[in-house]
Design brief:
With about 130 residues, the protein is mainly alpha-helical. It has a single domain, classed as Multidrug-efflux Transporter Regulator, Chain: A, Domain 2. Helices cover about 60% and strands about 5% of the residues. It contains 5 helices and 2 strands. The chain has a two-stranded antiparallel ribbon with strand order 1-2. Strand 1 and strand 2 form a beta hairpin.
């Protein structure tokens, strides 16, 4: 998965289509379109034919949304987070708390997985 700053547009508008974003990010085009339908890219531009055009800011938002989703935040939770983003600086503390909660959950899961891996390796060793 690429870093958003690694994106180099193939056009003069500094914007990318869904296929380009998918190929560069490793996030499926289906998922990107689904996230858009959920309202996670409030500033996403479209051309006269309705084709999505992602800016660098949209791509950064995609990575954040994908991380929130993979961390276990529900679609409704992400929609709430995006609404807070749109309200601006006055919601910063609440957004930081949501991010902290997701980080804490991931850290806990990581420790659990490390313990599971250790047990599996021990069991593997017992088979020898």
């Amino acid at each position: 998965m690429s870093d958003p700053s690694d994106f180099a547009p193939n056009n003069e508008t500094n914007e990318f289509g869904t296929k380009e974003v998918s190929e560069l990010s490793g996030i499926s085009a289906f998922t990107i379109r689904y996230y858009d339908k959920c309202g996670f890219f409030p500033n996403l531009k479209r051309d006269k034919n309705g084709i999505r055009s992602f800016s660098q800011a949209d791509i950064q938002q995609l990575y954040l949304v994908d991380a929130l989703r993979k961390s276990g935040l529900s679609i409704e939770g992400i929609q709430y987070f995006v609404k807070l983003q749109r309200r601006g600086k006055s919601t910063r503390a609440e957004r930081e708390e949501i991010l902290r909660q997701q980080e804490t959950g991931l850290e806990y899961q990581l420790e659990e997985m490390k313990e599971c891996l250790k047990r599996l390796r021990n069991a593997h060793g017992d088979l020898k």
